[in-house]
Amino acid sequence: MDLDVFVTAHRAEWDRLDHLLRRGGHLTGAEADELVALYQRTATHLSLVQSSAPDPALTGRLTQLVARARATVTGTRRSGWRDVVTFLAAGFPAAVYRSRHWWIPTAVLSTLLAAVIGWWIGAHPEVQSTIAAPEELRQLTKPGGDYETYYSSHPAASFAAQVWTNNARAAAMCLALGAFLCVPVIWILFVNVLNLGVGIGLMASAGRLDTFLGLILPHGLLELTAVFVAAGTGLRLGWTVIDPGPQSRRTALAQRGRAAIGMAIGLALVLFVSGVIEAFVTPSGLPTWARISIGVAAELAFLAYVYVLGGRAARAGDMGDVDEADRSAELPSAA
Predict the structure, then answer these.
(1) What are phi and psi of 323, to 5 degrees?
(2) Alpha-helical segments (H) within 124-182
(3) b/e map of 84-98 (b: 16 or more CB within 10 Å)?
(4) HSE-up of 283 (CA within 13 Å, CB side)?
(5) Phi, then psi, of 330 in degrees rounded to 5
(6) Mind spelling out the 3-state secondary structure of 64-118?
């Protein structure tokens, strides 16, 4: 495509669109129809320039024109409580449901790795000696030791806030750093799995694995599920950079990136629930079976939420993305 000829042929239309946009709401009916038609033609022109003769200056001008025209044509919309309800009832669970082929394998492999690490440490005293001195290991694993008192080391409310902040930060990092070819996500996930495996191994070697599981399971089921969902979504985002599928890389990343941002908000709420359980249920005087039952109930409730509400929304076409009216216009990737 001869760019100079193309610009000469269509400059008048772009100038006319710019003029109509500057007039704002003071348009006649005919002028409003003209603005819509010019917006559609300019969007097509932008697609042609991007695919055939990308010129930074021209692309920038047309992108700005298309964005301004789209805002004028579609209008603005204020978010309200209805959007929050829709997000929690459909958007967030649909996004988690759609990414299940990533986070379920992540959860299974991570759990197996934690078990292997725990067995390796528990069965090899020489490995334990590289972790800490014998006196320090006894302090960690003895009745009333550091593993047990950790959950009651601070007032429950402040402890819940601290746990929630740390876990939400880890989940957000998995989601945000996934685009860097998955490497940061794998490292964050490995650190969490390693910490769990070390705890399992040390407490098992002291003959107190049942106590450790009684402390971990009430909040850990929901907490680890949220971390696995974040890690799986981050890995999916990273793989999109490598293989975007039938969409253009930019479009695929934009769609899954927006869904990931929504998931970060939703997972923060899930981790808040697990933080409350960790602060108020785990160190409580309830019997072990009761504490674990609460954790199992919270986990089953989350899975039902994802598979029932999320599955229904996903089958109805919900991608976990923002509403179509709030997205940037998607233009053809080829002329």
Answers:
(1) -60, 150
(2) 125-131, 134-141, 146-149, 156-177
(3) eeebeebbbbbbbbb
(4) 20
(5) -100, 120
(6) HHHHHHHHHHHCCCCCCHHHHHHHHHHHHHHHHHHCHHHHHHHHHHHHHHHHHHH
User: Averaged in consecutive runs of 10 residues, what is the pLDDT profile of the chain (335 residues)?
Assistant: 83 90 80 88 87 79 87 66 84 92 95 96 92 91 87 70 76 79 87 92 92 91 94 88 80 77 88 91 90 96 96 86 50 43
Q: Is the dihedral of CA 167, 130, 282, 209 positive or negative?
A: positive
Q: Of 103, 100, 93, 168, which is closest to residue 320 (Cα–Cα)?
A: 93
Closest CA to 323 of 66, 76, 5: 76
pTM of the entire predicted model: 0.72
115 vs 97: CA distance, rounded Å: 26
Task: State pLDDT tens for residues 231-269.
Answer: 998 898 888 888 888 777 777 777 777 778 888 889 999
**Residues 291/218, Cβ–Cβ less than 8 Å:** yes
With tokens 């981790």, the residue in question is: 271
Residue with tokens 């929630």: 164
One-character DSSP codes across 201-263: HHHHHTT-HHHHHHHHHHHHHHHHHHHHHHHHHHHHHHHHHH--TTS-HHHHHHHHHHHHHHH
- Residue 280 corresponds to which tokens in the numbers above? 């108020």
Token representation of residue 220 = 């850990």
pLDDT, tens digit, 9 for 90 and up, residues 277-333:
988 998 888 999 999 999 999 999 999 999 999 999 999 888 776 554 444 444 444
Q: Are 201 and 118 in contact (CB under 8 A)?
A: yes
